[in-house]
Every structure is written in structure tokens, then in C-alpha cells.
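Milestone M4 deliverable, item 7.
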Amino acid sequence: MDTLPLETLQQIFEYACTDGGSTGCSLSATSRAARAAAHASRFHSVALKAGSADFQQLAALLSLYENQCLPVYGDRPRMMHLYLALSPMSPSRKTTERIRVAPPRYFEGIRALLRVVSANLQTLVIHARYSVPIFDCTFPSLKEVTALGILNPDLLIYDEDVGPLFPSATHLHIISNGDAGSSLPAWLAHAPRATRVRVSALSEWDGQLMHDLIGVLGLPLGSPPRDGVVEHPTTLPLPRKAVHLQYIALQPRAQRWPIMAGVPYRRTRSDLFIAWLKTVARLSAHMGLKVEYVPPCEPDPSFKEWCGLVYWQWVDRMMGGSGCWEG
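Output delivered:
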């Protein structure tokens, strides 16, 4: 280490700090020399679980990062990749309350952290079971966004005057939480330059998202069928609302009710929905847009399992892999 130029060491440490922060913490605790050499790289990637009871850890991270950005330390550290797990509600110990909502300072801390890192952030993974107002700034350098369990990005905005949140993002991965109300046009409005979009864990019950998909692609196609017949186009294609899109991957949820032995097989709503998705992919191929049908994960992952899967896809992308973008 004593014989390598500082620039070389910084490049090595940047490649090493792609695990969400544990390597950066280890390097800073090795020695004064290692801490100084890893100063600009130790926050290269950060995986943060920000629960309502973790405000002290959140405040400590924010204080440390702001302190390390002071000119006295030389090169300013840059957080390039952020994995943010939000849990603003937690079980309450009081018998009169079923859940405990995070205090206002929790949301203020999240917003402050995002403002500090917004200029340099390249990838962002955010997941939450509840939509919380955390965005009061834009992310001009962000290239990839993954959202798990978030129906509409507008619900995350704190300042109504904020423009498109991700003006330079090219990759957008939306993972549905199985409920109705997902808004694809809203996501695309905040990522106006997105060329590759993936929607995972699609539910046959989310008719709004399917309606949005038809409108975005300009497909002359009806809603997913309920009578066993896949609808085919009867009119000419409509104008596409998102002309910048080049690739869309559609992955439905796995069937949650397995076929029982001895029971005659019948086409379920899930089967019809999958057939409809394949029709969408086939029709789009004739319109200059690649739409790929991705088989569901078997068995159907839980929300916690999706969190783990998304984390490793995030790490894989940092390491130069394809992550979820195999198409």
C-alpha cells in the first residue's frame, strides 16, 4: 500500500466499496493511512435501513457524511449508489396503539440526506410499504431507479415545486406490491428520458397499471380478458405517449393457488392475464418497440424476499453485471 500512488489506491477502494458500506467502514477502521486513502471512496455505495426507530443511526450517518465533506479533508466524498429501505411505521408497545408513526424529524433527516447526495447519485433503490414525503430535490445525475412497493412517485414529493425527480434516468424498475393503483405514466413523467423499463410482480388485479400500459404503448388492445378469449386489435395503433422507450420487460406474479391433484384443470384469471401479456409483447414487436414477457419467479416472493433480490441486483449492477436487465 505504501508503494502505490494515491490515485491507484482510490480506484481500488472504489471498486471494493460496492457492498453497501461495510468495506468502507472496515477500511476507515484499519489505520490512519487507509482511512485517509479511502476518504473519497468509503461512501461510494451505501445501503441504509431507515426504520422509525433508527433515527439516531440516520442522524449519525448524515452528520458523518457532512463532516467528511468539509474542505479540510481534501477531496469531497461522493455517494454514487444508495439503497434506501424506508419503514416509517413500526409496531407500538402501547396497547392502545397498533402502529407507531415516525416523528417529523425522521422525515426531515431522510430529506436532508437525499439533498446532500442528490448531485452525484448514479443509482437509487428505494422501497417502502407506505408512501412518505421524502423528495424535495431532483437527482440530475441519476441513471437507474428501482422502486419496490411504491405505487406513485408523486406521493413521495414533499415540495410541490420540484420538477421531474429523475431527469437523466435511463433505467426504471418498478416492482408492484400487488395492490391496485400503480401509475406508470407518473413514473415516466419523473423519468422523461427512460429508455428501458421493467415492471415486476404484476398482478392480474391491477387493472389501472394495465390500462396505463396500453396508453403508454399506444396499443389498440382491450383490458386483460375474463372470458377465456385474448382480445386482438381491431383498430390501427394509437400514438405512443412515451416515444423515448426502447425496451419494456413485463413480469407477472406467480400463481398463488396451485392446481390441486384430482381437480380438473381450468384456465384461471392468472392464466388469461399471462396470455394477455404475451399478446402485448407480440403486438409491440411490430411497432418498433421491444416488449419482453419475463416468466414469474417461482414460488411467488414475499416482500422481504423481493428486498433481498433487489439488493443483490443492485450490487451486481455496480460490479458491471446485468442485474435485472438481461434483455
